[in-house]
Design brief:
Elements (H helix, E strand, L loop, with lengths): L11 E8 L2 E9 L5 E8 L5 H18 L4 H7 L11 H9 L7
Antiparallel strand pairs: 1-2, 2-3
Length: 104
């Protein structure tokens, strides 16, 4: 497997949302074909433990995407509660860009 590096200049989109009373900013970086190739996550409290954990989780998800793991597979793998709701802020962010499939 090899990593697909994204160009230094690329299209991006920033979304903001709230999870458990905490403001979260999600920035997506796109490949030239329009697919998501990286993401950045920050909480409203800069350099807090949550901010660091969000950033690290986004780096791991970005690396997985760049090594060819489909976004849908990452979304499917995250922890969910008994109702199917993502348990973590990274899961909530991923669900915003790639909603989980509802079992039939």
């Amino acid at each position: 497997m090899s990593r697909e590096h994204l160009p230094n200049r690329r299209q991006n989109q920033t979304l903001e949302f709230e999870r458990d009373g905490i403001g979260i900013r999600l920035t997506l970086g796109f490949r030239e074909n329009g697919e998501i190739g990286e993401l950045f996550l920050n909480s409203g409290r800069s350099d807090s433990m949550l901010d660091v954990l969000l950033s690290d989780a986004a780096i791991i998800a970005s690396l997985a995407l760049q090594f060819g793991v489909p976004l849908r597979q990452i979304v499917h793998a995250i922890k969910r509660d008994h109702l199917g709701v993502a348990s973590s802020p990274i899961g909530a962010a991923l669900d915003r860009i790639c909603p989980p499939e509802v079992p039939k």
